Amino acid sequence: MLAPLMGLVAIVTIVDVGFPVLFWQERPGLGAQPFKVFKFRTMAAAHDAQGRRRLESQRMSAIGNALRRTRVDELPQLISILMGRMSFVGPRPLLPIDQPADYSARLLVRPGLTGWAQIKGGRAISPTDKAALDVWYVKNMSFMLDLKIMLGTVPMILFGERVENDAIAQAWRELEKSQA
Hints:
Sugar transferase
């Protein structure tokens, strides 16, 4: 069903930033086991044809920005879901450097394409706030919560991220209470 969209995005990526179409990063997944997270490329190469380093702002294209904002760059992760390495809902797999050691509970479940932290702040909040929201999700996960997250993902994609400070504060309160 999504194959035509992914094919179109691949063609647009080739025209926009060239080959390769995908890039991957190794991230900790279920049980901290490393796995590869694939995404469509949204940035040009780090160096120009003369070997000069490009600034990050020069590397990102308008099309790349749109792919990231709408999360279309994440579509290749559907393959990881089919392979059983990810689920639709769960804590987003963080880069190892952003994975707080004190919040390993987030690694007790499969990482997700979307999650509680994404609909409560997404890229606008710190990695530790994301981790607190992820731990809250792991402790409260249910079919109804997953449904709420999936439904909350649609407006986030369409209208942008919104930081929900109450949800972040609740996650921290419950985390501190459980550590006391």
